[in-house]
Amino acid sequence: MKSLKRISCITVVTCLLYLAGFCAVFDVLGPPARTAQQWIGPAKRDAGQFIDIGGVYEYQGAGDWAYRVFAPCCQAWLRANGLD
User: Fold this and answer.
1) First vs last C-alpha separation in the chain
2) Cα separation of 72 and 67, whole Å?
3) What is the reported pTM?
4) In the chain, which stretches have pLDDT less than 70?
């Protein structure tokens, strides 16, 4: 029972750190970002590779690690904002 409690605590802490990382990398309350083909999630905080196209950011990068690493959170964010 003690090991189950330890495993559950580690799982909860890991999930919370993952969500905190998502909130640190992305502007969660900001506008959405998209590529030419699809919505990709919220705009990143360092919006250097984005072009403002009127309330939406278009991503001009070749491929970004943040959108791959945080793909589940980006998909949930898109669904919550009605863009998926």
Assistant:
1) 41
2) 9
3) 0.81
4) 47-52, 62-63
